[in-house]
């Protein structure tokens, strides 16, 4: 059985005080669904967020990490550093990392390897741009992103991977993929996994949708059979909205 997950990607938002406030507001919410809840604050607030949610049903996760173990990589954070403060899950390959920080399938494959070597869980993001979809190339783009970064792995590694389909044109734009577009792509992703790793890996894979998920559209998107949760940006910065999405399952 695959899991339901709703993860809030806070991106480069919230200093320490706002982080404290948002976490205390999140703790006041009631979860009525079976979804695992995760939040990804920025690096400087990870430790505080981790400490202050120890007793709660909220996992604190990282937004990124470097592939090297340590060394002369000014400004970067390693898997070991994340593990040393208790972080067990990392988002890799977000489209903003790919677009603004030149992350490629090749560098992401290295990051995935490093995270797995540290027994971390990876939320691996990918998705096509608007021009790809307009040209009818969305499946090819997504297939290549998955194959290039993940298909060197053994089947057993996929127990530690969650996939997040985030069409770039739907991120922060208010434009969402229709529930049917999300379902079609998620089914295609599952088929792609099945072709290489077989039915069990494909059926057990948790596939999240990300891109302008809001309280008003979450229920419909999550009702689709291949959509197992969401990676939430803007709406994750408001505790009530975020839990309305968590409880949409
Ligand atoms: P929005 O929900 O703000 O569109 O962001 C989605 C996202 O990028 C989550 O990682």
**N-end to C-end Cα span:** 15 Å
Low-confidence stretches: none
How much beta, percentage-wise? 5-15%
Biggest sheet overview: 8 strands, parallel
Report the order of strands and helices: EHEHEHEHHEHHEHHEHEH
Q: How many individual helices?
A: 11
Report the count of strand segments: 8
Question: Which small molecules are bound?
Answer: 1,3-dihydroxyacetonephosphate
Strand order of the largest sheet: 3-2-1-8-7-6-5-4
Q: On the 0-100 scale, what is the average pLDDT?
A: 97
Derived from helix and strand composition plus strand pairing, the structural class reads alpha/beta
Roughly how many Å is the radius of gyration? 17 Å
Which bin fits the share of residues in helices? 40-55%
Describe the structure.
The chain is α/β, with parallel strands linked by helices. Helix content is 41%, strand content 14%. The chain is built from eleven helices and eight strands. It has helices at residues 16-27, 46-52, 79-84, 95-100, 105-117, 130-134, 138-150, 179-197, 199-204, 215-222, 239-246; strands at 5-9, 36-40, 59-60, 89-92, 121-126, 161-165, 207-210, 229-232. It has an eight-stranded parallel sheet. Helix 10 (215-222) links the parallel strand 7 (207-210) and strand 8. Helix 1 (16-27) crosses helix 11 (239-246), helix 5 (105-117) crosses helix 7 and helix 10 runs parallel beside helix 11. The two termini are 15 Å apart. The model has no long low-confidence stretch (mean pLDDT 97). It binds 1,3-dihydroxyacetonephosphate. Residues 9, 94, 166, 171-172, 210-213, 231-235 line the site of 1,3-dihydroxyacetonephosphate.
